[in-house]
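Agenda item 2: shikimate-3-phosphate complex prediction
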Amino acid sequence: MPDPTPPRRQNVVLVGFMGAGKSSIARLVARSLGFEGVDTDDLVVENARMPIHRIFQERGEEAFRDLESAALLSLAERENLVISTGGGLVLREANRKQLRALGFTVWLSASVEATYARVRHNRDRPLLRVPDPQATIAELLAARAPLYKESADLHIDTTNLSMDDIAYGVTESARHAFSR
Ligand code: S3P
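Presented output:
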């Protein structure tokens, strides 16, 4: 018999590429819903006691991916959270399954240009510490888009939207999903 799909919990989960605004939107949505905001990158940094670029440098990307999968699993029994996830969390199939079980999942996307404009001054994103970050963004976005899509109940293209509009869309869609 196939594994039964675990029941959905009452959380909001934000997935999407770096610079999509997941952390800021999570804070706004958490405030509106009266939920607690949680960020898987923050959990990883707390557990490893070092910043993300040092985890990549000293332990490698796979070790970082193990830490973020563990961070996600640690939330499995929780409820009333707005969870902002690292942009690469969807790479592992087990994580995608876990994301869907965790709650109402929203994919926040942005164009390559908007993404680059939002991330270019941040130095803690090791995957973008390359000679041509815009080309890397385009490649990674194209490769990951199907994985974000597969993981999400709702897709919002944030390129031309204000933070307040995005947060309102996520909040009201989540309320609707939880009331069913
Ligand atoms: C990553 C995204 C980052 C962080 C790490 C790897 C990725 O999170 O987890 O640098 O693979 O896209 P944000 O999406 O919160 O920037």
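Discussion summary: Helices lie at 22-33, 40-48, 52-59, 61-73, 93-102, 112-119, 133-151, 163-179.
Owner for follow-up: CH.
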